[in-house]
User: What shape does this take?
Amino acid sequence: QVHLVESGGGLVQAGGSLRLSCAASGRTFSRYAMGWFRQAPGKEREFVAAISWSGGRTLYADSVKGRFTIPRDNAKNTVSLQMNSVKPEDTAVYYCAANQKSWNNPIPTDYDYWGQGTQVTVSS
Assistant: This one.
């Protein structure tokens, strides 16, 4: 089992950068593929990015490709979301999630553990 806590959200101007962090408890963090999702008001939760267990492979939603990256540090039990060139449409609550089955998984219901979320607001 793993407990996830996100941090780093806030208000940022369009074109700026923000780095979200997700800290995981437990000694088995490296057994989990990690993902970032987001949910805007009135919309369904959507996939943002995912990373494999070792961090060697990544997957991004088309909407963030080239702007966001998802590094992880298994020694520190953390996964981050580096957000560059943000846009107002990136405004949402961002969640990190973990699953042991597959790393390149954009389906929220396939993830077993979720953090509480952190709000990101991008002003125009």
Q: What stands out?
A: The chain has a mean pLDDT of 96. The two ends are 40 Å apart (CA to CA).
